[in-house]
From TrEMBL:
Domain of life: Bacteria
Entry's Gene Ontology molecular function annotations: hydrolase activity
AB hydrolase-1 domain segment(s): 28-254
Name of protein: Alpha/beta fold hydrolase
Annotated transmembrane regions: none
InterPro entries the UniProt entry points to: AB_hydrolase_1 (IPR000073), AB_hydrolase_fold (IPR029058), AB_hydrolase_sf (IPR050266)
Keywords: Hydrolase
Chain segments carrying region Disordered: 1-23
Coiled coil: none
Length: 264
């Protein structure tokens, strides 16, 4: 983990920067989903490194950002990321967001369109009311490795072989003081009873930066049909036999689509 400048404020989401090649353009900022952390982007950052610099944030209430002053919905996370980018003196970025991180990216673009050069949204939150609320609430508080494995399997496509270490690592992370409580708070704010709060899709369609949405047909968290009625100005990429964790299931294809969008 590296600070990009020595006088960075205390309450910045923790981050790591991948190696960069010849590119001097806007960096790619990677925003993870609910219950994840910046480590989920390691394969993607490795794939991006020869051509683009990248920063992966821990969103408030996740990873090493459990002590963020305020923890809650995607709007709170969007404000935190924007403040961090300002503190790091990064004036323009390519945003990549997965699940809840997709909703965070969209809110950043809506509030600060000049900051965002492009958006690539992977199975993003906020594009329809349907959400597997029971799964997310159980996932928020699970700390037993066996139960975590059962829950995590539902995030992936049916044929994906879940690495054994993933459930163990996730369970250990959840057992950290304050981790489960933080996720319960976030879940309570992004889920309205049994549905999720939605984004203004018409306003998103009016944004001028390139937008890609990537989804898997076997997503059991957010149904793929939420991508079917997106405005024609949004490029939609649907992958068969892929679940909710697009960037982990098909990292090469995901990296390719991100780089297609992240020009300049």
């Amino acid at each position: 983990m590296t600070d990009l400048r020595p006088n960075a404020p205390k309450h910045l989401p923790h981050r790591e920067q991948a190696a960069t090649g010849e590119d001097n353009g806007a960096p790619i900022v990677l925003l993870h989903g609910f219950g994840g952390d910046r480590q989920t982007w390691l394969n993607i950052q490795t794939g991006l490194a020869p051509r683009k610099s990248s920063i992966a944030f821990d969103l408030p209430g996740h990873g090493e950002a459990l002590d963020w002053p305020r923890i809650g919905n995607a709007g709170i996370a969007a404000k935190a990321v924007t403040q961090s980018l300002e503190a790091l003196d990064i004036p323009r970025v390519h945003l990549v967001g997965h699940s809840m991180g997709g909703a965070v990216a969209a809110l950043i673009a809506l509030r600060n369109p000049d900051l965002v050069a492009s958006m690539t949204l992977l199975a993003p939150g906020g594009f329809g009311p349907e959400i597997n609320h029971r799964l997310l609430r159980r996932y928020a508080v699970a700390s037993d490795p066996e139960m975590m494995e059962v829950l995590l399997e539902q995030f992936f496509g049916w044929e994906f072989k879940l690495p054994k270490f993933l459930a163990k690592t996730a369970a250990e992370s959840r057992a950290r003081p304050g981790a489960a409580a933080a996720l319960e708070t976030i879940a309570g704010e992004i889920i309205d009873g049994t549905v999720q709060k939605t984004l203004p899709r018409d306003e998103l369609a009016a944004l001028t930066m390139p937008i890609k949405v990537v989804w898997g047909t076997q997503d059991r968290v957010l149904p793929t049909r939420q991508a079917h009625k997106l405005p024609g100005t949004v490029a939609t990429h649907i992958f068969e036999r892929v679940g909710h964790m697009v960037h982990l299931e098909i990292p090469k294809e995901t990296t390719r689509l991100i780089l297609q969008n992240a020009v300049g």
